[in-house]
Amino acid sequence: MSQPSRRKLIAAGLAGASGLAVAAKLAGDHGLLPPDAKGIYGPGEMLNYATHRLVSRHAMAREFAPEQISNPPYVNGRPPKDEAFLRHQAEDFANWKLTVDGLVARPVTLSLADLKSQPSRSQITHLACEEGWSYIAEWKGVPLSQVLELAGIRATAKYVVYFSLQGDWWDSVDLDEAKHPQTLVAYGLNGGDLPIGNGGPLRLRVPRQLGYKSVKYISRLTVTDSLKGFGKGLGSASREAGYAWYAGI
Ligand SMILES: Nc1nc2c(c(=O)[nH]1)N[C@H]1C(S)=C(S)[C@@H](COP(=O)(O)O)O[C@H]1N2
Ligand SMILES: [Mo]
Question: Do 193 and 71 touch, CB atoms closer than 8 A?
Answer without folding.
Answer: no
